[in-house]
Amino acid sequence: MTTPSNEQVAAQEQLHDQFNDVWGNPRGWKSLTIVNHTTVGIRFMLTGLGFFLFGGLLAMLVRTQLAIPGYDFLEPDVYNQVFTMHGTVMMFLFAVPMMEGLAVYLIPKMLGARDLVFPRLSALGYWCYLFGGLILCASLLLGIAPKAGWFMYTPLSSAVHTPGPNSDFWLIGITFVEISAVSAGVELVVSILRTRAEGMSLNKMPIYAWYILVMAMMIVVGFPPLILGSILLELERAVGLPFFEVARGGDPILWQHLFWLFGHPEVYIIFLPAAGIVSTLLPVFCQRPLVGYRWVVLAILTTGFISFGLWVHHMFTVGIPQLAQAFFSAASMLVAIPTGIQVFAWIATLWVGRPLYHVPMLWLVGFLVIFVCGGLTGVMLALVPFDWQVHDTHFVVAHMHYVLVGGMFFPLLAGIYYWLPHFSGRMPSVRLGKWGFWLVFIGFNLTFLIMHWTGLMGMPRRIYTYQSGLGWDLPNLISSIGSFIMAIGIATVLLDIVLHFRFGQKATKNPWNADTLEWSTHLPPSPYNFVSLPPVRTRHPLWEVPDLEERIDRGEFALTVIDHGRRETWGIEPLTGKVREIIHLPGNSWWPFIASLFIAFTCLGLLSKFYWVALVASIVAVLVLLRWSWENGAHPLAAPDARVQPGEPPLHSRTCDGPGLWGMGVTLLANGALYLALLFGWFYLWTVSPNWLVPDDPVIDQRLLLASAVLLSVVVLWQRPVLRRLRQGQGEPAALITCFVGTALLGALHAGLLLWAILAGDLAPRATAHDAVIVVMLVYSLAHGALATILSALQALRVHYGYVCKRTPYEPLVVEQFWQYSLAVMWITYCSVVLFPPTFGGV
Amino acid sequence: MAREVAILWWAMCAFATLVLIVVTALWVHAMRRKGPQMDAARARQLTLRWLVGGGLLLPTLSVLLLLLFGIPIGHRMLPLPLAGEQPMRIEVIGHQWWWEVRYPDSGVVTANQLHLPVGRPVDLDVTSADVIHSFWVPRLGGKIDMIPGRDNRIRLQADQAGTFRGQCSEFCGTQHTHMILDVQAHDEEDFVNWLQARREQQISALPGPAGEVFDAHCGQCHRVAGVSEGNRAPDLSDVGARSMLGAGVLSNEPGALLRWLHEHQQLKPGNAMPLHDDLDPDHLSTIADWLETLRP
């Protein structure tokens, strides 16, 4: 390698300055507009840390209260709020956002991209997470926190048995936070599939990206059932629609199904990215590729699929049929196989490699011991007769902490130590790091190992005190002592991390000699990650091209021109990694912050029951989101200059295959999961509800419904040929405007008919769950019809402004997907509401 | 039946400990191993062996073994129809935060205690009057949820006389902690005698102003056989014979009942019984004395 001359260095610095002009982060108030994934990822992680400390403090309160029998440190009602919030905060405000934050930070860098594909969505997700989390935690300080358990089983959480806003904080706050989880999920899926380095085919992807891809898909499909459940329960609480109330035809067990349909995949949503950290770190410390890459990828995919078929194992004591229990029992145990494959792939990697000892390795060993232990008790719990005995005892508390702390927290700490030099450019202290690890490891096992025994001796969960003389005194005291040791350990780790920013040794380039691309950025990285985008021909680019970092920095690779002022990254073919287009990314924007602020006002309006505030705020939020969508595609703010260098592919907004199309597709997948959960509820209540009430006469004018569905079909059929020609580069503005205005008018008519059908029908949604579900299904279709109408009208306007034309055909294709989805939903609703009931003896 | 589960637990525990030790030992050994650098072909062969042996065969065989032993045990615990002697039927209804126990064949009702005959299967039909509770007597068997609008059944059998502790095991609100059930298993003869005594129990109402206070304040919610017909709170007909008060808050010693009447909101905050501050302490004392005499 030759030393670069002075001119070369100067030219290089000038290039970086130009990139900073386009990509740089503003300071002061304007830092609220930042959309860059590095900043957003760090914000996610720091906020997650804050909520972790809050949740940990709650855990300390719980352990203090249970340290001795009959202790009155916390009042029962406060205790119930504290343990409910501990679970809620750790699951929703720490584990998932922390893992997503790390992925948001790492994924583009690992894949050789400059940013995530929807940067403004990253920012929106962050603000929703922050505001939602703050609203939720504020409730505890006000003494009106949720207190029906993090699982919110109804009827305990219902308006009858928990009056006051406690449960509302959970239902509304968590739904708000989930906007963030799902939006990050959509974004990660599309980014991983569409914005990798040139030549990085799926089988050359870093293993971490596989884990995150599956995690993100699971979020996209797994969170919507809970969002739906929360909406239904909140409707029951606030307006009296009796989805879960037996007397009016509902069923409380439906809530449990919806909750665990989400709740079980959630465990793997937390575990998979952590396992991804293990699979990333071990090979680096062994200086050998991960053994059995293909096996591990298959194991990840299998885990993702199986995890959606296990939820009933949380409900073995509900009294469901025996055959179903045997099925779910066997299915639950099956998860041991893909997990076993990963564990043995890790052992084999260690076996063939030459492991180096660093602090992250300690955390990995700790992970293995604790997680395997948790996995084994998990297999035991999947056995129905054993579960009947220990379900809802401290045995389960112990098991769950072994899985979650072992399976998530330990790898996370390994990962944080590993990537610390990346965040700060400095190395942590080995001595403090070791102290921290051993204190946490010993404290954790002291707390939770004995808790298995406490549970076997019959101590149920969620009791705020216990009598002396049952044999529970000593184990509880030991657990409490252990928890304080663990807290001291965590404080030591934090101290180490804080001190390293000041006193840590400067990190050398690629300090661990890792193989993945994130270590070829500057430490800490520039907002654009790479000044030139390198091609990738191998799974271990930094091992096989040792001077890659210098060559990237010198601008030897692609997309180094920046004077057009666009933020750019490659858009690739998902399988092969061949470059297809240049994706131009939006810059900093106020819209995400403002939109999330108004969503927060909506939530506060709902919580305080000032419904007009909620209504106004939600309308403003929708307007802000539509305004945001205006600065897209060929809008001058989105792509100031559409010219590209000779030989380069076109901008994505000038093609028929931009990332927005994929974003819409994945979002509709999430939306479809929500709708399917609703449909599941409908058929579930028909077949299982103990007191299902069916009206004698049809409650809705079926002809109106049919007419409305037919109109929607006409819209989609009318658009098809027009958009097909557009895709082929034909179609004059006048014809496009006619089509979009026409479809908008028909869409409005469709929505109007649907609204008429709802209002003119004989529906009594407060009287029966039957009518309540129908109302929700129809309102769901109505909302889709109305939104599609607005989007088409906006498209007409954009044709008028010249943002959409035959050279920029991209946006109407995105909107078309939404119309098609609405159509499918409308007909399924029609069949389920009109055609299905007579076959079941209804009307 | 609980014994079978205990054996199952110890077997699983031993097996799991073995797996944990072996996997950890393998991991640590793999980390510390100092062998010659392996060539690619050898490494490939070795890793394949690891993945197939440890990743596929070990979990598959363990799971099969577990299901082979576990499913029959679970099957035996189910309340399936019996050929010979029919199980006795008892209804248990969960309330926030107490247990209502009914013997449908004899019409006897009690609360927070469950009397069982030894040596024959008992089918408990459980449900709830408000939120979801869960019925569990750890030493007699597994648990079953008590769900409003549904009837669940669990079969228990006590093999020897004695008292057992039951506790609600589904979180059911503020006083989930204090929802304890006192289970007493009697020899067949003792059980029949108890049931007989309860059925033939004659209670005469409390005379005088204290009796009026009882009718106006207590009897609206509590039932005392032949005296009051309240149905929102525990039946008190045999309250004097119970081992505990407040579903596990106080041991039912002499004087405990009066203390409960005065301090129940401190002892069990949030329970549904109103405060008695406005009642004459002498009347309360008389009522408490009378309640203590209520036993079969």
Automatic annotation (TrEMBL), chain A:
Name under which the protein is recorded: cytochrome-c oxidase
GO MF, one annotated term: cytochrome-c oxidase activity
Sequence similarity: Belongs to the heme-copper respiratory oxidase family.
Pathway: Energy metabolism; oxidative phosphorylation
Chief site of localization: membrane
EC number(s) on file: 7.1.1.9
Name of encoding gene: ctaD
Record's bilayer topology term: Multi-pass membrane protein
Location of the Heme-copper oxidase subunit III family profile domain: 579-839
Stretches that traverse the bilayer: 40-62, 82-107, 127-149, 169-190, 210-233, 267-286, 293-314, 326-349, 361-384, 396-420, 432-454, 474-499, 590-607, 613-630, 661-684, 704-723, 735-760, 772-797, 818-840
Annotated GO CC locations: plasma membrane
Reaction catalysed by this enzyme: 4 Fe(II)-[cytochrome c] + O2 + 8 H(+)(in) = 4 Fe(III)-[cytochrome c] + 2 H2O + 4 H(+)(out)
InterPro entries: Cyt_c_oxase-like_su1_dom, Cyt_c_oxase-like_su1_sf, Cyt_C_Oxase_1, Cyt_c_Oxase_su1_BS, Cyt_c_oxidase-like_su3, Cyt_c_oxidase_su1_bac, Cyt_c_oxidase_su3-like_sf
Top enzyme class: translocase
From TrEMBL, chain B:
Membrane topology qualifier: Multi-pass membrane protein
Superkingdom to which the source organism belongs: Bacteria
UniProt cross-references to Pfam families, sorted A to Z: COX2, Cytochrom_C
Reaction equations catalysed: 4 Fe(II)-[cytochrome c] + O2 + 8 H(+)(in) = 4 Fe(III)-[cytochrome c] + 2 H2O + 4 H(+)(out)
Signal sequence bounds: none
UniProt feature coiled coil, ranges: none
CDD domains the record matches: CuRO_CcO_Caa3_II
Principal location listed in the UniProt entry: membrane
Gene Ontology molecular-function annotations: copper ion binding; cytochrome-c oxidase activity; heme binding; oxidoreductase activity
Domain Cytochrome c per the UniProt entry, residue ranges: 205-295
Record GO biological process: ATP synthesis coupled electron transport
Cell compartment(s), UniProt: Membrane
InterPro entries: CcO_II, CcO_II-like_C, Copper_CuA, Cupredoxin, CuRO_CcO_Caa3_II, Cyt_c-like_dom, Cyt_c-like_dom_sf, Cyt_c_oxidase_su2
Transmembrane segments: 6-28, 48-71
Keywords on record: Copper, Electron transport, Heme, Iron, Membrane, Metal-binding, Respiratory chain, Transmembrane, Transmembrane helix, Transport
GO terms under cellular component: membrane
Domain (Cytochrome oxidase subunit II copper A binding) ranges: 85-197
Homology family: Belongs to the cytochrome c oxidase subunit 2 family.
Biological role stated in the UniProt entry: Subunits I and II form the functional core of the enzyme complex. Electrons originating in cytochrome c are transferred via heme a and Cu(A) to the binuclear center formed by heme a3 and Cu(B).
Record protein name field: Cytochrome aa3 subunit 2
UniProt organism field: Pseudomonas sediminis
Organismal lineage: Bacteria, Pseudomonadati, Pseudomonadota, Gammaproteobacteria, Pseudomonadales
